[in-house]
Design brief:
Layout (H helix, E strand, L loop, with lengths): L13 H13 L2 E6 H16 L8 E5 L1 H5 L3 H10 L4 E6 H10 L7 E6 L7 H6 L3 E4 L2 H16 L9 E6 L11 H16 L3 E7 L11 H23 L6 E5 L1 H6 L7 E2 L26 E6 L2 E5 L17 E6 L28 E6 L2 E6 L9 E4 L4 H4 L6 E5 L4 H4 L4 H8 L3 H6 L7 E4 L1 H4 L2 H4 L9
Parallel strand pairs: 1-17, 2-3, 2-9, 3-4, 4-5, 5-6, 6-7, 7-8, 8-9
Antiparallel strand pairs: 1-10, 10-16, 11-12, 12-15, 13-14
Helix pairs in contact: 2-4, 8-9
This protein binds pyridoxal-5'-phosphate.
The site of pyridoxal-5'-phosphate has 12 residues, from loops.
Length: about 450
């Protein structure tokens, strides 16, 4: 009998339990994603958007770039659709194609893709798969127009495919998109391509730089300026005879906090996964969101070491008393940030840095301890500050690195806690989690239709 901090005791069918056991034999760590939580987070975001009666037709895009922030592209996309999203968005065009190839047709979702090298991106495939395309450079306009012509020429009497174009405008992020001068220069060309039936200018869009810091007045001002510039672009487009139906600007932060800029479409990413964009905004719970991913691992070693033992490379953590040291068999090669290593004053750096948190189940209940010493490639060590024997901690116990945060009582860390230890943001914690850690899905049968279920790897369901 091993202690289990995962709380996973119930499986709906023996097959699901067998999948779980197989995954544990394959790898000593698992990332468990609750599809019901993803669906509920999306539902909540849709409700927030619908509550704003001044903009009754706002749609919601589930941003599923980067393998759905590490949660798994197709399962997450399907859960987002189950929660009421009508759009999906990916940065890389490859991921947009994967969604269509998996079976998510135009009848289920519009898909927008935005990062691309216009000379290499397979515009023809994107057009045939009815994927909306962002353009933010003159090169992209020319290349996309060429592809649209080719695709239309080979249509052979079928309904001609028109490129659904979202014009990206630079409102103050300093990244993608046309400046106002550039837009004025290309607007006649866009209009011409639209008149020719090659383009439909579907969208005007931009991205906010500092929407996640509502308490910093100069950032609030900067967001106001971005909004103003966004409106200016609309005026300029209008003057050139272009009136995009879908204007969109809001990420999660603005979806949660700025209903006045929901416009026709909002693009939440991190909120779908259950996190607020920045802990400065508060906790996920305050926003009605719940983290969907749990990362757990099985202990590979438990032993007693004397006082003065250096743990891991560089002796940056040295035990102060006799204690139990345990090994968690995941490391930076799994995407566990090395910057979440733990130092103590007895160690070579003579300074304290609290490492990433891990929760253990003990005879006395859940207990949080922190990474002690440097995180290695495939493992890290934790000083239990006590006796494993007395705590009831053994090799093979399941420990949890982060999860949905089941309250103070369970003292369960979230990716925000790991982000704090690693001096980064929660986004980087889950997107960096490597795919050698199996992704397992809870509640698939209750969230997805039979048809959608068939799109998933059946062995990934638990
Ligand atoms: C990633 C991304 C989003 C989602 O941002 P969140 O902060 O995760 O909500 C929205 N729009 C664009 C263009 C993005 O790249």
């Amino acid at each position: 009998m091993t202690f289990d901090a995962s709380g996973l005791t119930h499986f709906d069918t023996p097959e699901l339990q067998a999948n779980y056991e197989r995954a544990r034999r394959r790898y000593p760590a698992q990332a468990i994603v609750d599809l019901a939580t993803l669906r509920d987070n999306m539902r909540h975001l849709v409700e927030i958007v619908n509550a704003d009666e001044s903009q009754p037709h706002t749609e919601v895009m589930g941003v599923v770039k980067a393998d759905a922030y590490g949660h798994g592209l197709v399962p997450t996309a399907l859960a987002a659709l189950a929660g009421g999203a009508t759009w999906l968005g990916t940065a890389q065009s490859h991921e947009a194609l994967v969604l269509r190839e998996a079976g998510i047709g135009l009848d289920r979702a519009r898909i927008l893709t935005w990062v691309n090298d216009p000379y290499e991106v397979p515009y023809d495939e994107l057009l045939r798969q009815h994927i909306d395309i962002s353009v933010g450079t003159i090169d992209a306009i020319h290349e996309l127009a060429k592809a649209a012509e080719t695709v239309q020429r080979s249509a052979h009497g079928e309904e001609p495919i028109v490129a659904h174009v979202h014009v990206k405008v630079e409102t103050g992020f300093g990244r993608n998109g046309f400046t106002l001068d550039q837009l004025d220069a290309v607007a006649p060309l866009l209009k011409e391509l639209q008149d020719k039936g090659l383009f439909e200018i579907t969208g005007q869009w931009s991205h906010l730089a500092v929407a996640d810091m509502p308490d910093t007045p100069e950032f609030v001002d900067e967001t106001e300026q971005q909004i103003q510039r966004f409106e200016e672009f609309t005026e300029h487009m209008k003057a050139a005879g272009i009136e995009p139906k879908m204007r969109h600007l809001a990420n999660t932060a603005a979806t949660l906090s700025r209903p006045n800029i929901h416009f026709d479409l909002v693009r939440p990413g991190v909120g779908l996964y259950g996190y607020e964009p920045d802990p400065a905004m508060g906790t996920p719970e305050q926003y009605g969101l719940k983290p969907a991913m749990t990362l757990q691992a099985q202990l590979s070693s438990v032993k007693t070491v004397p006082a003065g033992t250096g743990l891991s490379y560089g002796r940056v953590y040295v035990t102060e008393k006799e204690t139990s040291a345990v090994i968690v068999p995941v490391g930076y090669a799994d995407g566990i940030h090395r910057s979440a290593s733990g130092f103590n004053e007895a160690g070579a750096r003579k300074e304290q840095h609290l490492g990433g948190p891990v929760v253990f189940m003990t005879k006395q209940g859940p207990l949080v301890r922190h990474v002690s010493g440097r995180i290695c490639m495939d493992q890290f060590i934790i000083d239990l500050h006590g006796s494993a024997e007395e705590l009831g901690i053994h090799v093979g116990d399941t420990v949890q690195l982060f999860g949905p945060g089941r309250g103070q009582e369970f003292c369960e860390p979230t990716a925000d806690d790991w982000a704090q230890a690693a001096d980064t943001i929660s986004y980087e914690i889950y997107t960096c989690l490597r795919n050698r850690v199996p992704r397992l899905y809870r509640n698939a049968a209750s969230v997805l239709s039979e048809q959608d279920l068939a799109m998933l790897d059946p062995t990934s369901l638990i």
